[in-house]
Design goal:
By secondary structure, the chain is an alpha/beta fold. The protein contains 18 helices and twelve strands. Strand 7, helix 15 and strand 8 form a beta-alpha-beta unit. Helix 9 runs antiparallel to helix 12. The chain starts with 7 loop residues before the first helix and ends in a 7-residue tail after the last helix. It holds the Pfam family MutS_V. This is MutS domain III.
């Protein structure tokens, strides 16, 4: 299955995984019941797809589960017990492990596996699940595993009262040796189910939408009401890029919301390539080969690289991919902020102009160099949006809503004055009264 080309910089920029007390996007989606489901969800986050068919299949599967509103059909305590029991099995023999397991452990473990198998059988036999076209392949895989003759006694076991020692050891031999691989495969399918049902629940709870997926080659990104999923009462914005207009030049004063908008857009497109629902009113996109963001690019002290040189290396990396005909989605927040204004102006115009000629890719560039807009406005492939600031007396207020055009808003000095920094520097720190 072909994967979207990404890197750790992009994952860090979009804040998928939290640090310390700050939770990430992953935590919003991670309401999984099983440990295996949690690990699988993280794998999906780190490996978005770049295959239209695979993305559509996962998208449709989760959407159909969301429409049904099904819950995870397994008891959490019983499932945990089954996982623990099976995790103790090293392979085709368990002579050493059996010595560590008490009769009670064996009895509880085998009973939990029997319960798991029966619940799996019941789930895939439900008419609503049988009629789920998008789940047909996965359902058939589970059914084939459960139809193995050796598992018939477990599926018909009544479980009235405690299993005898003889029955327990027979099932232990069945699950740990004879059908060990089969049981593990059933678990893997249940982990997938856990992820599907979890993400479907997130879609319903948060009113996320399932994007319309187009094949590669159109370079289309169209969103209505896209917002950041981790921000309460976030403002939604509309954006349409691709084809004849493949570059967006974004301006706005400090604190106007540029970086948040860029993260909202990047997060939506990334999740869409996972086949997941996104935080928007509607979305359609064409599948890309890769996605790269530069929102919080650090200096590389290890190689003695300044922020500016780190930017140059980043652009060179992208240029190599673009030269091979790759279809990329690229975000640059405050392009060339690591150098002087004159060089930043010239470099911004030159690089943006070069990007505009790569029509099978899409670029979003934010900048404080609003003067570059006059030259870029001569290029039909470049569109312009800004996030405005409204002054309420001496206090800047932000709408966080995109408007067409370029803004010259600069309110840095207003913010500095409002913070009283100049007065402190001029008058010195006042003595504390004792």
């Amino acid at each position: 299955m072909k994967q979207l080309q990404i890197d750790e910089q992009t994952i860090a920029d979009l804040r998928f995984f939290g640090k310390g007390d700050d939770s990430g996007i992953y935590e919003i989606y991670n309401q999984t019941i099983t440990r295996g489901g949690e690990a699988l969800l993280e794998f999906m986050f780190r490996n978005p797809l770049s295959d239209a068919t695979a993305i559509r299949n996962r998208n449709n599967l989760i959407r159909q589960f969301a429409e049904l509103g099904l819950s995870f059909p397994f008891e959490a305590t019983s499932f945990d017990m089954a996982e623990k029991y099976l995790a103790d099995i090293p392979g085709q023999t368990r002579d050493t492990t059996r010595q560590k397991l008490s009769e009670k452990d064996l009895q509880q473990g085998t009973t939990a596996v029997i319960t798991l198998l029966r619940q799996a059988k019941d789930f895939i036999s439900q008419p609503s699940v049988v009629n789920l076209t998008a789940y047909a392949t996965e359902r058939a895989a589970i059914a084939l595993l459960l139809d193995r003759p050796a598992l018939l006694p477990a599926l018909t076991e009544t479980l009235h009262g405690k299993l005898s020692y003889a029955v327990t050891t027979a099932y232990d031999q069945l699950f740990s040796v004879q059908e060990h691989h089969t049981i593990k495969q059933v678990l893997e399918n249940i982990y997938l189910l856990d992820v599907y049902l979890t993400v479907a629940k997130v879609a319903n709870t948060r009113k996320f939408v399932f994007p319309l997926v187009h094949d590669k080659g159109n370079s289309l990104i169209k969103l209505k009401g896209v917002f950041h999923p981790a921000i309460a009462n976030a403002v939604g914005n509309d954006i349409s890029l691709g084809g004849d207009r493949n570059v967006l030049f974004l301006t706005g004063a400090n604190m106007a919301g540029k970086s948040t908008f860029l993260r909202s857009l990047g997060t939506a497109l990334y999740l869409a390539h996972m086949g997941f629902p996104v935080a928007a009113l509607s979305m359609e996109f064409s599948v890309m080969d890769g996605m790269y963001t530069t929102i919080n690019l650090p200096d590389n002290l290890g190689m003695g690289a300044s922020h500016f040189y780190a930017e140059v290396l980043r652009i060179k990396q992208l240029a190599m991919g673009l030269s091979k005909g790759k279809s990329l989605f690229v975000i640059f927040d405050e392009l060339f902020r690591g150098t002087n204004v004159k060089d930043a102006h010239e470099a911004t115009v030159a690089v943006t102009a070069a990007f505009s000629n790569c029509r099978n890719s899409v670029f979003v560039i934010s900048s404080h160099i609003v003067e570059a807009g006059e030259e870029l406005s001569q290029m039909p492939a470049v569109g312009f949006s800004y996030l405005p600031t409204r002054m309420n007396g001496h206090t800047p207020e932000y709408t966080y809503r995109l408007e067409a055009g370029i803004t010259g808003d600069r309110h840095g000095m207003v913010i500095i004055r409002n913070a009283g920094i100049l007065e402190v520097l001029k008058n010195g720190k006042k003595p504390v009264n004792t």
